[in-house]
Each structure stands twice: as structure tokens, then as C-alpha cells.
Amino acid sequence: MTMFFQVFCAVFSGILSAVAIPNEALTRGSAALAFVALAPLYFAAKNARSYKECALLFALDALSCHLLSSYWLANFKDFAALTLGASAVGTACIEAMAGCLFFFPLAKSGRPQSLKGDSSIYIRPGLSFPFEPYRILHFAAVRVVYEWAKSTGFLAYPWGVLSMAAFDNKILLQTADIFGSYGLSFMMAFCAALAGEAAGFLGNIRAKKDKFSLLCNAKCLFLMLSLAICYGGFRLLQFTPPQKTLNAVLVQQNMDPWASSDDTQSMESSIRLSEAGINAFRSQDEPVDLVVWSEAVLRYAFPHSMRRYDYYPQEESLFAFIQRMETPFIIGGPYSFDPSRHKHANAALVFDGKGDFKGWYGKNHLVPFAEVIPGVEYPWVRKTMERVVGFSNGWTAPGTYTLFDFKGRPSSQGAGAVKIVPMDDSLAEQKSVPVRVAVPICFEDAFPDVCGPFHQAGAEVFMNITDDSWSKTVSAEWQHFAVAVFRAVEYRTTLVRSTNAGVTAVVDNKGRVLQSLPLFEEGSLSAKIPIFKHVDTVYSKYGNWFAHFMLALIALAAVCKARDFRRPPLRDCVMTELEKIEFLFAFF
Known about the structure:
Layout: H1 3-20, H2 31-34, H3 39-45, H4 51-69, H5 80-103, H6 135-150, H7 170-173, H8 176-179, H9 182-199, H10 208-237, E1 244-252, H11 264-282, E2 290-292, H12 318-325, E3 329-338, E4 343-351, E5 357-362, H13 379-389, E6 403-410, E7 433-438, H14 448-456, E8 461-466, H15 474-490, E9 494-499, E10 505-507, E11 513-516, E12 523-531, H16 538-542, H17 545-562, H18 570-587
Parallel strand pairs: 1-2, 2-3, 7-8, 8-9
Antiparallel strand pairs: 1-6, 1-12, 3-4, 4-5, 6-7, 9-10, 10-11
Helix pairs in contact: 1-3, 1-4, 3-9, 4-5, 5-6, 6-9, 6-17, 9-10
């Protein structure tokens, strides 16, 4: 196989992956395409002749997929070199290492022929796969480990993973409460590798044992898909009525936050939309429990700038409006929790129905280099960043996971539901029940490392506030939503998103969209949010156990392979050196 064809296959595989996940043409992606997207990469990589070649093929796949699917990162202010460029290089490097993992069992390990044809003497490694029936499994395991590695840690970027293509397939999605997103990625990579292996049979006569191996792998794939479909169908049909409800107004102002340095216009728009949403509830004699504004609507840091919002906007100040609505608010804005040490949080600010500031939660998982700069506490770091990119300070992660209790009410759905009829106005308040709310900010709803601690602390709903309007692309909004939906199923917890431009929506504990607003349009969503019983799932208990298990399988294969690379006997080494000397004398 020529190198040009192998490179073509790797790039083509990246293109297919980019088309499979949500994009401008297929906003919800294509799960069917994701099941075969990696077939060209597998076909090329299994014929690689060295670690370098295999690593290059995997890196080209990652690079082409990332640039085609996440090109909108270039719109993040003036940080294209850090957002798109650095993330593309980082993703390519991680998948290059995955390519080395894939190639390791392919390296020839037996005793090759010596100069005299003696097979007991080592010369150099070649290319083979001593356990070929398991090559497909090995490829799928490597893919899972790659996606886990790129989605974890400080530089984590969980976009561009295969499972994103299936967020709208509600049957397959249900497996996330066991495997997370990695179960779907494993099946997709396994299917693609099987297709790539089958392509090798076209026009070639293979041994009967190879055909038998291919058939066994096909049966395994059929079994995995059958079990996933049966489990997904069972979960979707399972009756899980909500225990409580929370009436919330979700505001989508659709305004460019970078168009103005002042927040007056965004507040005025949000106030108008909030009142419309509250009136929609009240016109149906429904109480309003909460109003949610998106990330970074306010520009001036609390608590020092709190007095400003007693007077602005001038037509009706923010606090005066909250008092008139008599409704609690969650609003995105900055919070300075240690100004002397330049520690400021991208925060969710919470106010009660009287307009009193009750608390805040600061974003813990920050965008590397764009939101957080390592060493920002040092003056020379700030000066360097100011000189290079005009950006000298960032946010700081407080490291605390804060939950908020809001007033909800018991649900009237399901068998055995309780209905309370108060005989006295003083008893009416007893109808309310607390609802514990977590507020992941920006892309924190993409990370189990953030949502997991919230769930373990008792969160009953994930109330995400975010602003992706800077991307200016439909695909960016849908990709973020596709990644976030998995959190609702993994923890069987309602996911609510209040965004600047989309996707503003309510997602139930089975990943189904109950209500939503159109993208890039201003509006308010008066949502009756179902709150389900807090349960522990396999995933919530054990986290990314499946990715760790795949890593253990790869390590086991490496140990088995290492036995074949054992040092040859001293006699064989001496004989090889003598052969070289004899060959040189014969030559001269």
C-alpha cells in the first residue's frame, strides 16, 4: 500500500467523522455515518510499517476532523492561535500517541531469519499481528482511550468524539448511564474496524481461519448492538414519573456580548424577555419559581459593584425589577472573591425574590489559556500575555461546588401522586418543596468531572448557563448541546440550559428534549421542569470505568507482547556478531 493512499485514507476518515457529528449541513449529525467513519483509518493503519507512520496516520485523522468540525474556535476574540491552533495540535498529538498504542502489537516479535537463515537469531523487528482475531477489539479499545484522554484534565476538549453523532438516537443513548459516552464510541469504532477488515478481503483469497475470525467479530458486534437496543428500549419504556416540578423562565437574549463593554442593553433586553415569560406563567395562574439568565450578562464584578444595579438600567434598575417580580433569579456575571491576588470568578449570581444577593457559584473548569493563564499571579506572566495577545488576566477556579435550594412543588403525575388542598392561606406555603439546583457554567455541562460532584452532593437538576454566541455558527451550538445531553442520561437528572443564542432547552432524564427555543433568536421559555428522583447509576458510582477497563486491556496486550521482545541468549548474540565479521572478510 502506497504512503499517499494511506494518507488519503486517514484524512478521509477525519472528514467522515466531521460530517458524522453535528455540523452546518447535518445539525443533528449522522449516527449511521459514525459507525463507518473510522474504517479508512483502520484500513490504512493496519498496514503501517512503523510507529512513526502509524502515529502520523492517526494524527492526520484527528487534525482533519478537528479543523473541519471545530473551525468556529477561530471566532473566539483574538485567540484563534490558542483556541483553534493549540487545540488542533494538542488533539493531533494525543491521537498520534493512540496510533503508537495501536501499532505496538503489530510490531513483529518472533525470531526473524539471520544472515545464514537461522531463525534463532534476532536482527530487527518487522510487521505482524500475532493475535490478528483481536485487532478489531484492540482498535476500538485504543479509540476509547484516546477519547477519554482528550476529554480529561486541564486541556480537556470533549468535542469531536464519535458518540456526539448519536445524541439524538434515544435508544442507543440510554447506555450512557452504564458506560458514559464511551460505550457508543466503542461500538462505532468496532463497527468501523470490522468494515475496514472486511475491505481487505475484497479481491483477495484469505485463509479459512481469517474468514472465521471476521465472522466471529461480526457476531460480537451484532450481539453488542442487540443488547444496547434492548436495554435502550427497556429504559425508554420504563415509567419514571417526576417527583417535583419547578416553574422557570429561561431567557435567551441573543446579543453579542463583545459588541459593547457596557451591560445596560443586555439587561434591558433580558428584563423585557423575563417579564414576558413570567406573565405567560401568571396568565395560566401558575406560580414562577425561578428566572435564569445566561452566562456573563452582567459585566461589573460583585460584590463591589452591587450598588450599580440599584440604579441601572435607568428605566428600571435590576434590583427594582426583581423586587417587582418577587421571583428568585440566577444571573451570569463576574465575582471577585480575592481581588488583591487577582482572583475573579466567572460566576452564577443568585438573588431571592426581594432582590437580595444570596450567593454565587464560580466556574471550576476553565477554558485553557483563553479563560485561565497558568502563573497569572506573577507580574511577568501578565506582562508577557498582554504583549503577545493583549490579554493579561483571566478567571480563577474557586474549587467549590455550590448548590442552591429553590422552592418547587410536588408533581401531580404518576400513580399514587399526592394532592394537597390547603384549607387556610397560611397552609399554602406547605405545598412547596425544595429543589436542589446545580449551575454548571459555560462548557462545564460537557464534563462528568464537574457534574459528577454536583450529583454526588445531591443535585436534582443541572441548570446550565452558557454563551456560545461568539461562535456565530449553528454547528457550535448543536455540538455543545450534543455533548451536554449525555449528562442527563448518565446521572438520570434533568438538564436545563439557559443560553445567549442556543440551544436553550429542557432535557429529561432519558435525554429527550421537552421544550426548546430556536437558535439565534431572542425569546423566553416558560418551562415546567420535571424533577426526578435522585438515583445512583452505574456511571455515577464508578465514573469512566469503561475507559479505564479498555486501558487495562491495552496494557495486558502490551505485557503479553513484551514477552516476545525478551533479550536473546548470549550465544545467539555472539553468533550474529561473528557472522557479520565473516561477511565483511568475504566481501573484501
